[in-house]
Amino acid sequence: MTDNLERLRAALADTYDIERPIGSGGMATVYLAKDIKHDRRVAVKVLRPELASALGPDRFPREIKIVAQLSHPHILPLHDSGEIDGFLYYVMPYVEDESLRGKIDKGTLSVHDSIGILREIVDAISHAHAQGIVHRDIKPDNVLTSGRHVLVADFGVAKAVSHAGGNTVTTAGLALGTPTYMAPEQAVGESDIDHRADIYAIGAMAYEMLSGKPPFAGESAQMVLSAHVVQKPKDIMEVAPHIPPQLGLIVMKCLEKRREDRWQTVDDILPQLELLGTPSGGVTPTNTRPIRVTQPKKTMRMRWPAMAAGVALVAIAAIGGWFIRGGGAAGMGADGKVDRMAVLPLTDLSGSDDFFIDGIHDALITELAQLDVVTVLSRSAVLPYKMKSATTKEIARELKVDAVLEGSVFRSGNRIRITAQLVDPETYTYIWTQSYERELGDVLTIQDEVVKAIAADIDAALSEEEVVSVGGIEGI
To answer: Are residues 35 and 135 in the same domain?
Structure first.
């Protein structure tokens, strides 16, 4: 170590005065240094010998050239790079504030702060993905805090993919990443790692930010990697019940084992985090829900039956919220209303309730299809999307619908949590979202009675078309 430090000091003596090592990871060692020409403190990251050998002095400049094109307020910029005396290095600004790792370890992150940090991280990753660059090693240590903002670092050893001319620049054969945050496809050494590995890592990091611990832990790296591949993470709403349900859903969908089941782009996540970051926290209080209409005349109170503790409550309520809302949101039909809607297959987060969830899905479609005010696509039209990889916008355009209902079901013992969200497919914003947890009784009776009762209330509300707000929801 000392010999390498002295060699590095001698090699870079004309441009950088290397002071001391300030960090070390699986891929590089970071040194604090002084940029002699510009009289400023910088961080010099020197790749480990095995990584330097795999990249080579010819490929490394190509990797760095791609990364150097990244220019974003939440990405740590690249000052310089090069090869000298066998060292491959690149130079970044030195950020004195602590990393996100330090904040997590101190337990000082609030939900509000976490949402703000995640929003900036996702925004930065979105910019990189748009340039064809997959980070592959997103973790709290690579997120630096600077004042009230964050900077994502360490793109210099990411897998860089250039789409220009169809060329692919890759660090093939290297298992880049950190076990705690590695996607299952990384853990098993697949070669075709894409941007959805970053989405998984964002979910793992968010899980730790919000709950204080990562989704998986073990005595060895092999145990952690194995868990990523074969184990389901505990629902974050169980370990961090204080967070908004919508935020919990975002995190858990990031952590899906199959990349096709995750959010397909970080741009699917960003608007939801932005909504959560609004002054109201993006979470509608349980007992009141403001609704915008074109000709408000009166206020209506919808009293939900006690049976609303049942399975279908949240999804039907979501539909009602969209219909009553009316009035020209993006994604609506030309007449300013929702003319066609698709109810997508619900996601089974427990992995063992397929028949139960399929029954709910079928009942929702059947009951809603009887309403005269909207056309609801048949189950056969939406069923292919249970396995098909597509974004909400792509699904809506393929099916030619104005609104999409998505949802998930998680069961633990005799308790069940249903989360549903009604999505404007053109803007990826949630018109309504909520989560409920209840004890299961006679689910068939609950399904039959509640679905019929709530559908009738929705039909009556739509006939009025004058509702200003819905409050005092009882039985919830």
So the answer is: no
